[in-house]
Amino acid sequence: GAGFNDILFTIGIGGLNVALVAVLLRQATRRKVIDLSPVQRGLLVLTFALGTAHITLVPYGRVWHTGQLIGVLCITLAYLATLSVRGWRSFVLTGIAFGCALLTRNHLALAGLWPAVYLLVTHRQMGWRRVVAYSTGGLLPVVLAVGLLGIYNWLRFGNMFDNGLAYHRMSSFFRADYVQYGAFN
Predict the structure, then answer these.
(1) What's the pTM value of the predicted model, to 2 decimals?
(2) DSSP-derived secondary structure letter, 60
(3) Closest CA to 18 of 54, 65, 60, 59
(4) pLDDT at position 167, please?
């Protein structure tokens, strides 16, 4: 509700992210995707928690910060599903988590490349028909999320490809560069 402290929410999500990164690194080591000792994993988790932008996002509780934190949560869950679950469930759960990540930040699209390749490579022995069926199951939540985002943009801005960037009230410090170079420079 409106009376709930957003900072408590972002602190909870931030703490969960740190814990999930630790679980993700452990699972990646178990699956032999990476080769790290427990000390190395611990240092990476500590670096993630205290040495990245994550620590600057957690204590503020603002919409942009919350979106970033939830995006990290969803991507981490997608990677965990990729590494922890086998069969069609791995494709579907990865797709659901990745679709949710896209709803927070559409530029996270490239974060889905590794899970997609990993799932295809680790399931290729099942035969191409089954892999295509599994992939369809994994892509369905992503397509649904993109469709919902397009409908949202259309209802709010009159165009499914307009995400509202043109209406952003950015600082005058950034405005000149944005006008000159655009959003993706």
Answers:
(1) 0.88
(2) T
(3) 54
(4) 81
